[in-house]
Input
Amino acid sequence: MKGIIDLHTHALASGHAYSTVKENIEYAKINGLKYYGLSDHGINMPGGPHLFYFQNLKVIPREVNGVRVLKGMEANIIDYDGSIDVDIEKGLDYLIASLHTVCLDPGTKEENTRATLNAMDHELVKIIGHPDDGRYPLDYEAIVKKAKEKNILLEVNNSSLNSDSFRPNARENYKKLLSLCKEYKVRIILGSDAHICYQVGIFDNAQKLLEELDFPNELVINYHEDEIIEFFQL
Output
């Protein structure tokens, strides 16, 4: 099936990405997306944007060339209590909460899990980003159960599955996570984690893994426009 939404993308403001917002939206259209989300890194990411950047996302049109634009942030989890680096939520459509080593040193399995579970309690957190990083061992059953309880999407990150990915054991970790999502009927979202426009809407690695695991399409929100509209209140 064809994914029609990509909410994990980065533009120049993230500090280590290489395309403009305009270029990203253009490639969202080229690559067949109906919904595009900009989720530049939160303010604790080295080289990332100032808070003003997120306050001014209102200037971006809601629709460009037939692509609906959502405005978000990849918030950094900054302590083991699940705090995130967001001082403003007004005007944002969603938050992705993620663990990054430059913002929080990897802890024990219990610490990493507590941080992730508590991050899910923030009102605008709709997605847990790349819960695949072997440097952050997680209790996947606890994560999946909380995601079901809070109606939060767990991301399958296409970038993590690249052969040159810096996140160790992502493929093996996704096998465990997806098995539990299938068991508990928890929805996932495919995210490109694009850092250049050509990657926007590209989910080849993730889709190959889903096919290999016979993961049910009905649990992949990218494929279902009615669910996208309902979940993100569009």
About this structure: The longest strand covers residues 67-76.
